[in-house]
From TrEMBL:
<dbReference type="InterPro" id="IPR015424">
    <property type="entry name" value="PyrdxlP-dep_Trfase"/>
</dbReference>
<keyword id="KW-0032">Aminotransferase</keyword>
<dbReference type="InterPro" id="IPR015422">
    <property type="entry name" value="PyrdxlP-dep_Trfase_small"/>
</dbReference>
<dbReference type="Pfam" id="PF00202">
    <property type="entry name" value="Aminotran_3"/>
</dbReference>
<dbReference type="InterPro" id="IPR049704">
    <property type="entry name" value="Aminotrans_3_PPA_site"/>
</dbReference>
<keyword id="KW-0808">Transferase</keyword>
<keyword id="KW-0663">Pyridoxal phosphate</keyword>
<dbReference type="GO" id="GO:0030170">
    <property type="term" value="F:pyridoxal phosphate binding"/>
</dbReference>
<dbReference type="InterPro" id="IPR005814">
    <property type="entry name" value="Aminotrans_3"/>
</dbReference>
<protein>
    <submittedName>
        <fullName>Aspartate aminotransferase family protein</fullName>
    </submittedName>
</protein>
<dbReference type="InterPro" id="IPR015421">
    <property type="entry name" value="PyrdxlP-dep_Trfase_major"/>
</dbReference>
<comment type="similarity">
    <text>Belongs to the class-III pyridoxal-phosphate-dependent aminotransferase family.</text>
</comment>
<dbReference type="GO" id="GO:0008483">
    <property type="term" value="F:transaminase activity"/>
</dbReference>
Length: 435
């Protein structure tokens, strides 16, 4: 495409397209940094012909990589046969039934029933509403309070925004949310304290990502979730695991919470279930909750989306999971995650402005500090500058700056050792340039 046509598209973008989670100011001055037009494997290409490594799997989601013909084929086949039919009330369709059964088989414990949505925010809203509804049915209508962790990210629908522990998302509007509470992300003892302060008879659920993604790839202490499970059981609080990033292999197991040896009461998922090829998400509920819902509900479940159980999306989800299993991508995430950690540690030795590094499967983070001893941060922060420099060098990563100065990594689960080394090489070259 000619430079002129690209410029034309950029100005149309600036005028007509309000980007999600964007710097509106930057967007208005510079326009889009890249207009992508092709993707293959871990690579993206823009209209100017430049190739980038997609070190974030786009938004932590394109786990099987870009441009998979098999997915295109199954989508075409399903679209020609039946793209969509409503699953309201008693109607159903084959891909939705098969995908629900497949996910139930993969999920830990007795998480055996799926409610489908179109993404992570809807999934967390659904889980919050189901938890509250559950307690109404159980004759404890005061149990409506929701507790989440500082720096958590659960989405931007109404409930999921209010459950999000990154304050900026809640400050976007002024709506007070009296039934949402936030607890120090590292302390199970503080969770107990907060439940007792609120009165256990008023608390519906505690929601948490097994490993926080957008908050900075924050990995909990090994026994954190065991304690959380015990506390929730002790006070009858439902435990919702938000597996939107960590589900479907990203952490080296099917679901992130499996690393911690506990089973939640509900689990939300999205992103990796379809690797971003179509919009899909959902909530898994335990057999106990399902049994109680069936036994106690009278009339209609007053919650559902037009696209709950979308036939095309579910067919794509099934094929995506088939690829993950056939290609051993869960194991690859584990192995490449170990390689990534070695690479981070080598960089840490080389650059004294690298503070903590961590990986959890194919999630990774490198923190920058001006001074390792005091933890003092750069001013201006280094990670946003580094990310811009890396884009110039053909690598897309993300920065987290809420309470840290961190580069985060979430490459596709198909990544090879050579491709991972390319990522690490570009990071190294960029840091050498910036130091
Ligand atoms: N939960 C987690 C852990 C996420 O990372 C995200 C998105 O990044 C969401 C929920 C929201 O998902 P969506 O953007 O699909 O609504």
């Amino acid at each position: 495409m000619t430079v002129q046509l690209v410029e034309q598209l950029k100005s149309l973008d600036q005028k007509h397209f309000l980007h999600p989670t964007s710097s509106i100011e930057e967007q208005q001055i510079y326009g889009p940094a890249a207009i992508f037009c092709e993707g293959k494997g871990i690579y993206l290409k823009d209209l100017g012909g430049k190739t980038y490594i997609d070190g974030m799997s786009s938004l932590w989601n394109v786990n099987i990589g870009h441009g998979r013909t098999e997915i295109a084929e199954v989508a075409k086949e399903q679209m020609e046969k039946l793209a969509f039919s409503s699953c309201f009330a008693t109607f159903s369709n084959e891909p939705a039934i098969k995908l629900a059964a497949k996910i139930a088989q993969m999920a830990p414990g007795d998480l055996n029933t799926v409610f489908f949505t179109s993404g992570g925010s809807e999934s967390n809203d659904t889980a919050i509403k189901l938890a509250r509804h559950y307690w109404i049915l159980k004759g404890q209508p005061n149990r409506q309070k929701i507790i989440s962790r500082t720096l958590s990210y659960h989405g931007v629908a109404f409930g999921s925004t209010n459950a999000t522990g990154i304050e900026g998302f809640r400050k976007f509007t002024n709506s007070p949310a009296p039934d949402f509470y936030y607890v120090n992300k590292d302390s199970a003892a503080e969770l107990r304290k907060l439940i007792l302060e609120l009165g256990p008879e008023n608390v519906a659920a505690f929601i948490s990502e097994p490993v926080q993604g957008a908050g900075g790839v924050n990995v909990p202490k090994p026994d954190y979730f065991k304690e959380v499970r015990e506390i929730c059981d002790e006070y009858g609080v439902l435990f919702i695991a938000d597996e939107v990033i960590t589900g479907f292999g990203r952490t080296g197991k099917n679901f992130g919470i499996e690393h911690f040896g506990v089973v939640p009461d509900m689990m939300t998922f999205a992103k990796g279930v379809s690797s971003g090829y179509v919009q899909l998400g959902g909530v898994l509920i335990s057999e106990k909750i399902h049994r109680d819902l069936c036994a106690l509900s009278k009339g209609i479940l007053m919650h559902g989306y037009t696209y709950s159980g979308h036939a095309l999306a579910c067919a794509v989800g099934l094929k995506n999971i088939e690829i993950i299993e056939r290609e051993g991508l869960v194991q690859n995430a584990k192995e490449m995650g170990e390689e990534m950690l070695k690479g981070f540690q080598a960089l840490q030795k080389k650059y004294d402005f690298i503070g903590k590094v961590r990986t959890f499967g194919l999630l990774g983070a490198i923190e920058f500090v001006k001074n390792r001893e005091t933890g003092e941060r750069f001013d201006p922060l280094l990670s946003p500058i580094a990310v811009k420099e890396m884009v110039k060098r053909g690598l897309i990563l993300r920065t987290v700056t809420y309470d840290q100065d961190t580069l985060v990594f979430s490459p596709p689960l198909i990544i090879t050792k050579d491709e991972l080394n390319d990522i690490l090489r570009i990071v190294d070259e960029t840091l050498a340039y910036l130091q």
